[in-house]
Request: fold
Amino acid sequence: MTLNAKLEWKNLLAQPQTVALLTAADANGEPHTVLTDSLHLDSDGHLVYLEYLESSQINKNLVRSLWFKKKISVTLLGTDGANIQLKGIPSHVIVAGPLFESYYRSVRDKIDDGDLSTVWQIDVLDVIDESWQIRKEDQDLNHAIVAHLDRLSK
Amino acid sequence: MSNTRASVTELSRKEVEELFPEVPPLVILKADVQRRTVRYTERAVAAVDPKIHQVQGRWIYTEKNDLSPESLLLRDGSSILTAPLDTAENPYIVDVIDGRKVLVDQGEIVEDVDYWHKPDFYDKVTSSGKPMWHIAHARPQRIEFNPYSNCRFWDNGKGCKFCSIASTYTKGRRESAKPLNLELQDISETTREALKQKGRFTGVFITGGSIPQGENVFDDEVDLYVDVLQAIGENFRTKKFPSQLLGSAFSEKQLERLYTKTGLMSYTSDLEVLDEKTFNWICPGKAEWVGYKEWKRRLINAVGIFGKGFVSAGLVGGVELAKPHGFATEEEALRITLDEAESLAEQGVSTVACVWVPYAGTVFHKQKQPSLRYYVELAKGLQGLRKKYALDIEMDNYRRCGNHPDSDLARI
Reply:
């Protein structure tokens, strides 16, 4: 990971314009991706995802990830071209208690007749800078042999 | 002697995890904790805050009013319904280590746990002056009413041999003037109060002891449940509300009445053991008033009224191995139980099992439970049948109940 990505992903996540995608796989390894507006950091610095629908595929896949320690990924896309991928494992499910009820009330305030299934806490294990410029510089530097020849022609 | 059938050949939890890598270790742990029960250390009890945590509970199988936690939550959000058992020789230890509430086994920290939170209504009182925790019992996401606290199968001594309803009622009546019935007004008021706590509850659960009396068998029990469900239903704007009734095996006419006159959405009737001979021995009252085959037929008929995925049969998992008339081996018990469960599943009835614990106050309190491996294979087998026959178990899953390792497996 680049130093910038390691430092910047939390800021990127906090930007309201940032697009966030969450991906987790099912028992067959088939990935499922959702666009989400609910990923955020809580006051203790945990990455938190709010799943609104109990019956959703992503909810099932996240349960599997927690149970079998399978990694999930989060992609964060900024308006300035920033593109950071997080890899992690869900560590805690919160479906009852004061914290859940606090999130539940906020979802009900935000979404007309909204519901909240699960508060997911995710341990972030890897941060990868996927920005185009960073990836290209890496390839040009470390994998120069894979370039198309015409790019190098006189 | 341990309360489990431990022997030199019994697999440890870790060995069972290795044998069944497709079964989540947290579900295996849950089954093992239910089977072996828990003991709370002084530190664990000191970590309870009665203003926040649930320590009191009045329900049909137990009454609790000490300062230990009512039960536990795992970090996957599922509950472990368990309580200390005086005769347990190898319970998990609930302790607080480095500020974490943890389950400890053989000196090793196994998992983090949390205590159940007390619902707001527990501190309220009905207009008739009764504490609301005497009216309804709470799990983390369900509210439960027990409108009849005894079981009339015991009238002639034919209650189920694993069941503590009658002894709990007798003890409660003697020690805390526990009433036999609840008042409808108290039920309605308690429901209204519970619904004020936004996000707390996802289901209403109603159960009580069997009442075979009436013009037709169980008419009195059905009358009671219709009244209770209507009292609860006063508080909902929709005709139907997420709910489960665990009752006796009702006739089609009785079930139609329950479905059309109330907001009830799902129905469970416990066969307890899936073998007629064992059923007759363990559940003589059920056998006398209805019989195994008829009980099963009534469950299947209920699917036509409530729909596929809204009817289930409960088992006391492992009691089929009770001595001396239960199955001789775990292999035989598993094969016959799953064969019978399949005959229900192919007709739309789901089967769920709890983990049998020979608690005090039951005829079987000196019996031994089967192995952890048995419970894991039973859970796996029952969920496998649901997959095979496309049966949902949302009515009785980890949120609405939390007492069935097999329905936990339906989460993925």
About this structure: The first helix of chain A runs from residue 3 to 14. Helices of chain A lie at 3-14, 57-68, 98-110, 132-142. Chain A touches chain B through 27 residues (CB under 8 Å). Strands of chain A lie at 19-25, 31-36, 40-41, 47-51, 72-77, 83-94, 118-129.
